[in-house]
Amino acid sequence: MRKTSKYLAVACALMLAASFGASAAQAREGGGRVTSSGSTVWYLAEGSTGDSPQGYFETFILVSNPGATSVHVKLWHQLDRQNTLYDGSWQGAEFDVPALSRYTVNVADTLNTGAPSPVHEWSVSTRVEASAPVFAQGSVYWTDKAVVAAGGMTRQASSESVAVREPATNWYLAEGSASLTTTAVGPYGFETWVLVQNPGTTSADVSISYQTPTRDVAGPSFRLAANTRRSISIGDTLPGEDSVATTVTSTVPVVTVKSMYFTSLDEYNKPVPRISAHGAAGATDAQTTWWLPMGKLAGDIAEIYNTYVLVQNPGDETATAHVDFIGETAGMVTGYTLTLAPRTRQTVDVGRMTDDPVYALLAGQWFATLVSADRPVVVEKAVYYTHPGHITLSTQWVSGFGSLGTTELGRSWAIPEGSTAIAPQGTFSTLIGVANPTTSAVNVSIDYSTTGSVMTAPTFRLEPLTFRVVRVSDTVPNQWSVSTAITADGDIAAEGVLYWDAQSPAFNFTMGNPGTQSATTCVGQPQD
Length: 528
Prior knowledge:
With about 525 residues, the protein is mainly β. It has helices at about 15-20, 105-110, 145-150, 355-360; strands spanning about 25-30, 40-45, 55-65, 70-80, 90-95, 100-105, 125-145, 155-160, 165, 170-175, 180-185, 185-200, 205-210, 215-225, 230-235, 245-265, 270-280, 285-300, 305-315, 320-325, 330-340, 345-350, 365-385, 400-405, 410-415, 420-425, 425-435, 440-450, 455, 460, 465-470, 485-500, 520-525, 525. The strands form 4 sheets. Strands 25, 26, 27, 28, 29, 30, 31, 32, 33 and 34 form a 10-stranded antiparallel sheet that branches. Strands 1, 2, 3, 4, 5, 6, 7, 8 and 9 form a 9-stranded mixed sheet that branches. Strands 10, 11, 12, 13, 14, 15, 16 and 17 form an 8-stranded antiparallel sheet that branches. The protein starts with 12 loop residues before the first helix and ends with a strand.
């Protein structure tokens, strides 16, 4: 029995909240801009209800109603084949979401393909239609049957099914890896899937290309029928390639996201398939300035964090990018300068470069990242966690989270997702990071909304070029559903991290501090 499976709860706690009752989730537009309001239509390209001897997927759709009146919602699904009814789509759930509440749908229970439930479909995307503005998000869980048979947890990995408001003809994904290879003891490394959804009424001619640190590589081209979805493995074109960005172009507007899964080794040097996962929507255009509010660098006996900043240059000119940081205690830290040839991607392993002074300045701290470039680029981050008492090498992670950066600051931010619940299955912990990357001090206030009440955290002053992390449970302990509103008298950037610390009766020891088994980001939404 593999002791490792004790820790394989869910690598995307944001979506784990879908089945436990926490609140709604993030939404993005292209170019990294986070939406400032709800929408009556949302698209979620990722989803699966597939089942195999190795394991199975579950997909949940979350719909949050921030308004004062009930909203009627209907779901339509696009599979890898068209439906002869319903204008090409497959019918899903239809329901009402009461005011100021959230509704969760298990896709396998409501996907109407005429087959007995549950419906085992490997490729499922979703269009959400609402009678009034709502927020939508999804979660895709992976359960390895061998892990469960060994006494471990179900849903040990999860990838966000990120919702977007509008399809587009160009998409950029800065993060990706196809490093999954077979070693002497079994598989090890990353697999990355690019998911393309065509929610329209006409076929799309789609072309994919990949950008590595040294070259631009043509990927597959295909025709995507109306109201269908296609899954593309980067490893089919670039097997073993560690650093890969993706560009997707289409003749008609489509939706593109990615999902990454990591297969690691346990302390007995045995492979644990898909121990961790994360996902992100693509950007529809490149920008010269990006903010990524939450990263961490730690390497002591309690925890090991690795933060990677991924920078993609999809253009035809060489780009110079500066990657700098604002630490909790270090303040402004000058980081790295990258030179990116046209149509390439580079990776910054924060604090892990040779003789890197950044490590000494940021070690043990949460930090925000600023990327500024002289040419438009696309920026994502990935943060991975492990524990020395559990896995011997810092590259053998047990959880991770990632996100596309944001390209704007704001004075009011909303983070709909959050939980501080304590339950027999485990414990949630939510952190809120607030960065002031400007030259003027700001005063910050935080309100937490739970079921039927609002609680206010102590107001604090954030000096210029500083960063602070707030633990939600200090004000709102043991609450399943917590959403956060952050206001300031100057421009800031905000983001949340939601941790899930699973408890398994099959094992009798814990890994580090509660709340650090698996995690995901809850990116803030600027409201002004």
